[in-house]
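hey can u check if this looks right to u? its 581 residues, i copy pasted from the old doc so theres a chance i mangled smth
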Amino acid sequence: MKTPTAIALALSLFSALAASASSPNSPEQDFDVVIRGGTIYDGTGGAPFVGDVGIVGQRVAYVGPHATAGGRTEIDANGKAVAPGFINMLSWATQSLIVDGRGLSELSQGVTLEVMGEGASMGPYSPAMKAEALSHQGDIKYPIDWTTLDEYLTGLTRRGVSQNVASFVGAATVRIHELGEDDVDPTPEQLDRMRKLVDEAMEDGALGVGSSIIYAPGSYAETPELAALATEAGRCGGIYISHMRSEGDRLLEAVDELIEISKESGAPAEIYHMKAGGRANWAKQKAAIARIEAARAQGQRITADMYTYTAGSTGLDAAMPTWVQAGGTDAWIARLKDPEIRKKVLAEMREEHPSFENLYLHAGAEGTLLVGFKNPALKPLTGKTLAEVAKARGESPEDTAIDLVIEDGSRVQVVYFLMSEDNVKELVGLPWMSFASDASAQAPEGVFLKSSTHPRAYGNTARLLGKYVRDEHATTLASAVHRLTGLPAANLGLHDRGLLKPGYYADVVVFDPATIADHATYENPHQLSTGVEWVLVNGETALMDGRATDARPGQVVRGRGWTGWPDGGCRVSAKDWTWAW
């Protein structure tokens, strides 16, 4: 356990000085930046008000009526909304930010914090894990010059990123570190080592443990294993967050498991990208909501996040049984080449009620869109449906899916059309629902144009504020802003983030509620959203008049267990922490 006393004292002194400077919330002090005359949504969910925001250095110094003092930079926000920077609760910008630190598709929507770590995180890595990751890189190539998760995150900020970055430690990552990718249970000694890896990541600043348990090898983890890792997250001030074991046929059982893990571990729990997938399961959503709200009523801290689309995106691995994927990608492909194993896989892919989470079954071949290939020879198939490719090849869609995995040497990225628009709209209105793109931070240029993507990469937040808030009134703007800012920040236990409040970091977005809109489509996803005019990250301007600046002010945002905080470090249990609610 690291105890950097000098860092802690310096942070404590800095916080005291910042609080002292801004505690009067004075409109007469000098500012570096003043945002004038905007309608302020402070992130609490309270009523908005017209006023000014003053910034000194990296922090908000004033929020209130007209500030009489000037600033070196003055931003006219008349007729615009001024809010805390938005938090993306599930970002896959892990690789994209390495090659393009702007994070333009996210920055143009006002996102100032990318939260990573759904099941897999960028550390801790063993030498074998590094070699495996390097061998399966796709369009984006990069050296792996880090070992721990914190080394990865600090490396991003050292290279320069526009947004802040944070991460959960992946449950599958610590599993692979100790067990490899086979379908095995950990021995007590192995589980102890996995728990220790979680502790180390938490004290380095991870936000908790993230799982993704429809995919191999994460799916091989049984409930007690996940509860053990969540226990470590909880006693280190973090949460358990999960892509649950099912979002379709066994949705309600999966919600029950997440609630059980939270209760057993003492850690709050969040459901990643909540949905009811597959027409046959749409009616289950109300029962899932009822189970969550019953647990909340009993004092459990259960929340969720979502993306604002009726289609998801993942790989063709989610169309095949997980047993065939044991041992990793190369072992999976080798098995698929075996005629007898292939027959068995085909039979299970066609089962009406399979034992695994088969997204292809619910989307169908016509509802499975091919968007990402590693093999250049297959890239001309980008944008076609699985049904179209199968017809052209004269074979079944299931055979085509298997062949594409073999030919590409990857899981092949696809879009699955699974959800009901009415259900999406219902979820948008829930008071405990945050928002997540479940996508990388891209740009409509360069390496990103080598593949297609899901439009959520460019439009998730703008779609919420335009389509669902302004146009369809699924929720209020004050509530939406709260659930993009203050709510996720509180759920994560972030220090001085998520609100427009004196002393808090100056992550600020200025946008036009009347015009904000997403433009990305499934046919043409590489289109930036519009309507966000200014984005400040830690007091520096990252987006000006809708265009990215050269500033890269992003920082690593660390969880409460980070030993750099004066009160950081893991404790005996989750009960030793004070939680947001």
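The CA atoms of residues 348 and 551 lie 51 Å apart.
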